[in-house]
Write a structure and sequence with these properties.
The protein is an alpha/beta fold. Helix content is 28%, strand content 26%. Bound molecules: pyridoxal-5'-phosphate (PLP). Pyridoxal-5'-phosphate is lined by residues 66, 68-69, 87, 110, 207, 210, 245-248, 284-288.
Length: 426
């Protein structure tokens, strides 16, 4: 039987005309657990992680998985067991890290709107670093820490004003974004932080965007951050760790981002050349660790050929896969089993059941399908389940983690009772 790998997704492959995740056929998983169903490959996550680990071999580096990409406990557990830290953006994410067995000391807390109670909980848990995003936040964090007779370890997120050349909704390091401290304000902000009694300055960080497919924006941002470190240290404030954020892209549709190890070989050359090669390094990758480790299986409910468009209505929708509706994002859509006999290949609008015209999963896809067929929406490991909603009172999908020939159900399908928990009639 021939094995045919899908581009960019070595852990998903056709054996004959059946699509497999590692050693398991996806059609059988769909039969066992129903659809829509997210299926993740543990080997794919670990091999994505290993590319970064190879890149940092011999360095003092901490990889903090940016868990907003996929915050399911079973996924967090994979990274916690592999020794990763976590980049969190809310108190809820901290509770998930702790529930999955993650180490609080390896947690960094990002985000522009941390509340006092989130700060208190994170200080009590003993997280590694707060990535502070404004001068106002510095003052509040210092106060909260002082009230608890603690010192908050802080890094300031700087906005290097570098264009990551990605979708405007996922670029974060340009002037005019809500994120980070402007380049020109950085030194003054560090001086303020160093003088606040509840804070200890430990690092600097930047994160310029997401789904970045070029090296140049990273190299530019690194230069700008290192210039800042030089001026901050010249002012007598030592910077222990350098955090270069996340944002590396994945192959959705012939995209060609640099491999993590190649990217870091080049970034480390620059760090070495500028004399920073022995500093503690941190990174916050999200999408590049999980995006191509997951697929969403969905069943074709109805075919509705039309005058202008042919609609292929499937049982997954924008509440499960929000990226097309939110960012006009592209996901490959492929058959789980061989083509239906006698079905002509036609161009289909692949859409879900949600009552919105924006509920589409793929435009103009050439597919040979009939009702009852299973399709796999590829590259669905990042920013899908973690952004899933209950819109239209649709329960969120189940999730399975495949490890070799074993399948672990890591999330049960959400029921209407689950959805109504906590609601009351007046
Ligand atoms: C979202 C985010 C990341 C991860 O971005 P990816 O594109 O998923 O790698 C890292 N750091 C911060 C601060 C973020 O907000």
């Amino acid at each position: 039987m021939s094995t045919q790998h899908l581009p960019g997704q070595p852990h998903f492959a056709y054996r004959g005309d059946e699509l497999f995740a590692e050693e398991l056929g996806l059609a059988e998983l769909a039969r066992a657990h129903g659809t829509p169903l997210f299926v993740y490959s543990k080997a794919a996550m670990l091999s994505a992680l290993r590319a970064y680990q190879r890149g940092f071999a011999g360095r003092d580096a901490q990889i903090c998985y940016a868990m907003k990409a996929n915050s399911s406990l079973g996924v967090l557990q994979v990274f916690a067991q592999a020794g990763c830290g976590f980049d969190i953006v809310s108190g809820g994410e901290l509770e998930r890290v702790l529930a999955a067995g993650g180490d609080a000391r390896k947690v960094i807390f990002s985000g522009v709107g941390k509340t006092r109670s989130e700060m208190q909980r994170a200080l009590a848990a003993g997280i590694g670093c707060f990535n502070v995003e404004s001068e106002a936040e510095l003052e509040v964090l210092s106060q909260v820490a002082q009230d608890m007779h603690l010192q908050a370890p802080v890094s300031i997120r700087v906005n290097p004003n570098v264009d990551p050349k990605t979708h405007p909704y996922i670029s974060t390091g340009l002037k005019g974004n809500k994120f980070g401290i402007a380049h020109e304000r950085t030194l003054a902000t560090y001086q303020r932080a160093a003088n606040l009694p509840g804070l200890t300055v430990v690092g600097i960080d930047c994160h310029i965007g997401s789904q970045i497919t070029q090296e140049a924006p990273y190299l530019d941002a690194m230069d700008r951050v290192l210039d800042l470190v030089e001026s901050i240290e010249a002012a007598g404030i030592p910077i222990k760790h350098l955090d270069f954020g996340g944002g590396l892209g994945i192959d959705y549709n012939g995209d060609t981002p640099p491999a993590a190890d190649t990217l870091w070989a080049h970034l480390l050359e620059k760090l070495d050349a500028r004399g920073f090669g022995t500093r503690k390094l941190m990174i916050e990758p999200g999408r590049s660790l999980v995006g191509n480790a997951g697929v969403c299986l969905t069943e074709v409910l109805y075919l509705k050929p039309g005058e202008q468009k042919n609609f292929c209505i499937v049982d997954a929708a924008m509440n499960d896969l929000p990226r097309p509706a939110m960012y006009q994002a592209f996901h490959q859509i492929v058959p789980v089993s061989g083509p239906a006999p006698d079905q002509p290949a036609l161009e289909w609008e692949v859409v879900g059941p949600v009552c919105e015209s924006g509920d589409w999963i793929g435009h103009d896809r050439m597919l040979q399908v009939q009702a009852g067929n299973l399709l796999a929406v590829m590259s669905a490991g990042a920013y899908c389940m973690s952004m899933a909603s209950n819109y239209n009172t649709r329960g969120r999908a189940a999730e399975v983690l495949v490890d070799g020939a074993k399948a672990h159900l890591i999330r049960e399908r959400e029921t209407p009772v689950d959805q109504m928990r906590g609601e009351k009639l007046a």
